[in-house]
Amino acid sequence: MIAAMAAFAFEDMFIKAATGSLPVGQVLIIFGFGGTLIFMGLTYRRGERVLHPAILSPVLIIRAICEVVGRLCFTLAIALTPLSSASAILQATPLVVALGGVVFFRETVGWRRWLAIGLGFVGVLFILRPGLDGFETASLFAVAGTLGFAGRDLATRAAPPVLSNMQLGVYGFVMLIPTGLVMMIYTGGWVVPSLLVSGQLGAAIIIGVLAYYSLTGAMRTGEISVVAPFRYTRLVFALILGSLVFAERPDVMTLAGSAIIVLSGLYTVFRSRLQGK
Questions:
Q1: Whole-number mean pLDDT of the chain?
Q2: Domain boundaries, the chain
Q3: Is the separation of the CB atoms in 84 and 24 below 8 Å?
Q4: How far, in Å, are 71, 85, 148, 198 from residue 193 at the CA level?
Q5: Whole-number Å distance between alpha carbons of 270 and 235
Q6: Rounded to 5 degrees, what are φ and ψ at 164?
Q7: Half-sphere exposure in the Cβ direction for 122 (13 Å, CA)
Q8: pLDDT value at position 277?
Q9: What value does the mean pLDDT take over residues 75-89?
Q10: pLDDT, tens digit, for every residue of 38-78?
Q11: I want to staple 32 with a disulfide (CB 3.0 to 4.6 A). Which of 145, 150, 177, 264 is the partner?
């Protein structure tokens, strides 16, 4: 999960840079097409079917819908708002995922772990500072993206075991293509990317595939309530990249919130190890 979050932060950085020159819909089309081709190649190499009958199962349909909502809305969020603030809002995902693990998978979460996850959410509030000056209207895209990604992760957990991570990767990325096409209907104007922007998109695709594979593996093999808090590390990576690449300057409250988030995740691991002894 930590490797996935680091990769996603770099993917976000490249996508945000690309959306400065290209329409969001076009970015989604190129990103989705590239990721689909890579995962299709990996699927064929393993001797697996790309179009498996299980793709029509209710869980996979729900997962596809959540994938579209999460990717589309969060891409809009990082295009319209600072990378650090959009990533901060996304840190509410573990709360939704952990709750879903209890409701849908009957996982047991002790009060100490709930407290740690709750403190992580407090850390997010430190960063967001809800109020008149705390939110931008475009931040609502990040909220919708959070709900979409949480639904996708829960559906990934419930996905038919017959489907490999490679096959799930194909189904996840291919949904971005029609989503981008629909957006292009409203935004219009296909732009020929420059060499620099093409490189940014290429890097986003390769890193995005690695991130997606790591995340899928984490959600399908680990206990959700233990794995989910490690999503908080994405914020740390985003803060660093936002500062270095986009000259975003986090203030004291943002840094304090980030520290709370990281500590809550580390405490969750500590508790899980004690219970495993």
A1: 84
A2: 2-276
A3: no
A4: 21, 27, 29, 6
A5: 21
A6: -85, 170
A7: 12
A8: 46
A9: 86
A10: 999 989 888 888 888 888 888 889 988 998 999 899 999 99
A11: 177
User: What is the Cα–Cα distance from 127 to 125, expressed in whole angstroms?
Assistant: 5
Is the backbone of residue 189 left (phi > 0), alpha (psi -120 to 50) or beta? left
Tokens of 121: 């959410």
- C-alpha span between 179 and 181 (Å, rounded): 5
The reported pLDDT for the residue numbered 36 is: 93
Task: Specify whether the CB–CB gap between 9 and 234 falls below 8 A.
Answer: yes
Interatomic CA distance for residues 267 and 141, integer angstroms: 30
Q: How many CB atoms sit inside 10 A of residue 137's CB?
A: 8
User: Distance between CA atoms of 236 and 37, rounded to whole angstroms?
Assistant: 31
Identify the helix (H) or strand (E) that includes residue 118: helix 111-128
212, 45 in Cβ contact below 8 A? Answer: no
Q: Vertex 16, ends 64 and 148: CA angle to 5°? A: 25
Amino acid at 169: G
Structure tokens that stand for 205 in this block: 């695709």
Residue 213 in this model has a pLDDT that exceeds 90: no
> Which has more pLDDT, 250 or 173?
173
